[in-house]
Amino acid sequence: MENREDDELPFPDVGVSKPMAKFVRQPSRANRLTKTDSLVGQIILSPAEKVHFLLGGDSQFDDSIQVHPLFCELEELTVSPTGEMEWSEAARWVKFEEAVEIGGARWSKPRVASLTLHSIFELRSIISKGVVLLDCNAASLDGIFNQAVGKIADEQKLDATLKDEIVSLLLHKHRHLHELRKDLPLMADKKLQARRPSVPSRSLITSSSSARFPSSPSSAGFLTDYSDDVPKKNKAFMRKLPPGAESAVLLVGEYEGLERPVSAFIRLTNPQVFGDLIEVDVPTKFIFFHIGPVGSSEANKEVGRSLATMLVDEVFHEVVYRSKNRENLLAGVDEFIDNVTALPPGEWDPDILLEPPSNVPSQESRKKARALAT
After folding, report:
1. In the chain, which residue ranges form alpha helices assigned H by DSSP?
2. Residue 93 and residue 309 in contact, taking contact as beta carbons nearer than 8 Å
3. Whose CA is closest to 126, among 146, 94, 145, 152?
4. What's phi and psi for 131, nearest 5 deg?
5. Core-most of 15, 105, 148, 233, by most CB within 10 Å?
6. Torsion angle of alpha carbons 115, 133, 140, 253, nearest 10°?
7. Rounded to an integer, what distance in angstroms lies between the CA atom of residue 153 and that of residue 304?
8. Phi-psi region of 221 (alpha: psi -120 to 50; beta: other; left: phi over 0)
9. The whole model's pTM is what?
10. Can you tell me the mean pLDDT for 16-25?
């Protein structure tokens, strides 16, 4: 029989003396899970366990952070009847989703949001790889967007012209449904039909920017200084918001000057009211924008719907307030995904609204790591 190398033998380790592995006594799982963040980072934890620590299962828990009820507003980039770009309100959330119905004349009934798995995973990728600014302390929308787009420009190597165009896009006027409803019925067809998303051209933003954006914007913020109209807030809807509510605004759309999406998730250190940014007079705590190349409008809207739905989810809502870093946010996203139920295609009609439950189930069990074991 020919001699063969050990790695060619069917059992190369048989008969070979090897040093005994050093045995290290491991602490019990219960003890390991009571250590500080630095040690927890060395242990493989499930998303549920990570969320458990973030929401109070850790000795480092910061009870000084105040978590407020959230109102979320989704806006799409559209072109107005006068040919100017504006951000048009497309959907809103207090607890459940309300969407502007086709034709743009009224709100739908509140409904349970049905999300695509693709949009949820796309959102996860954006948070994982995109710009995330936690505790941004800029005092104006101009400062906020310049800071965020500046980081995007550095990472994606955007030229200065395109960077300025993106900032200008983000600073355009905001139009809300309650403002348009005042024009009904005489201007309904003309004004509401024109609010359908369309592709803003580079020539359009170049020509309109010089008129709308002074070269030296005031630190007080764009929407207060440059809007021609005094913002008309929806006072009737304000009564539906819980006391102490804050807001999140999600801006989505497409732009012909882009070859790849630009996105950012921003949490403000000091929430404040920004002119006509949202329809109600409550301070804004979170800003998200996701603008892609031509042809991505509908997909971008679904990403925005996914984030808004997550922001009003009882568990993720608290995670997003308490997150210290990108990893905390991702743990919240993964925990949400772990609790999502998928409906197979062809076995339900997505055009049928899912009615909200009469009694919303408690989510307290999700806040406690179900996988914790001694």
Report:
1. 29-32, 37-40, 47-52, 117-129, 141-156, 160-170, 177-181, 193, 202-212, 222-225, 235-238, 297-311, 314-322, 326-338, 364-367
2. yes
3. 152
4. -80, 125
5. 148
6. -30
7. 22
8. left
9. 0.78
10. 44
The model's confidence at residue 204, banded by pLDDT at 50, 70 and 90, is low
Alpha-carbon span 82 to 165, nearest angstrom: 20
State residue 252 phi and psi, 5-degree precision: -135, 150
Distance CA 370, CA 260 (A): 39
What's the token pair of residue 302? 């679904």
As given in the structure block, the two tokens for residue 159 are 């030229």
Q: What whole-number distance in Å separates Cα of residue 148 and Cα of residue 249? A: 15
Please name the residues in contact with 247: beta carbons below 8 A apart, sequence gap of 6 or more: 70, 71, 72, 73, 271, 278, 280, 282, 283, 284, 285, 286
Query: 265: part of which helix (H) or strand (E)?
Result: strand 262-272
Which residue in the block uniquely carries the two structure tokens 């020919």? 2
C-alpha dihedral, 172 to 296 to 250 to 114, nearest 10° = 150
